[in-house]
Amino acid sequence: MRRETVVCSTPSALAAAESDPADVTARKYRRSFQSGVSIGAFLHRSGEVFAILLRQEGVYRLQHCQTMEDVMKKFIFAVLALPSLVLATEEPAAPGAPGIASLAGVWELIGAYREHRDGSRSDDYGAKPRGTLTVGSDGRYALQIYHMDRPPFAGDFRAAEASEYKRLLLAMSTHFGSLAVEEGKLVFRIAAASNPQWDGSVQRRSYQLQGEVLEWRVPQRPDGDVPISVWRRVR
């Protein structure tokens, strides 16, 4: 039977759960938030808590009594706020990063594909994906890609089924951190992402920049497909 626990953050409740790793992380989350961390660090720690919640059954406390749906809702809202927050809060990349000046600006997504072994392509985020990429002159960046054919929730967002949340999370790709051009490749040093496995990772992508159009290729997936993202600079 699936275990579901909803516990308020009272002294007695905290004392009863000292051995629970998810609760330990949640308490660190609360202390850090109350002590006044940067938004970037706050979002990164939110991702840590979210990853633990996905790996374990039940519902764990954060600030108040919350359900898994409440936690996922807040996480998704935090992801949506990334472009307006990260460029003002993350530590800057090393000044003078080679080639980064050519990428500075705001970009809109004009294509997201999967290239198959035979050279053919198919849509990776639906026929009309939307996305934005913001790159600062110091290399800080924030990226979002969304599948726009996502069906709406059947009912109230807070009472959605787990399968609906899963579908929503798989229909987007978001991350932020620092970006550089090294040895002819884009190097993403990812601070945090909608996929917790990418948190703290370094990813390299081959790319082409032709005028105001930027295209990059993600390393080949296990099935042999190569994801390709195409962007147009709008300012």
UniProtKB/TrEMBL annotation:
Domain of life: Bacteria
InterPro entries: Lipocalin-like
Domain Lipocalin-like: 105-223
Protein name (database record): Lipocalin-like domain protein
Annotated source species: Massilia eburnea
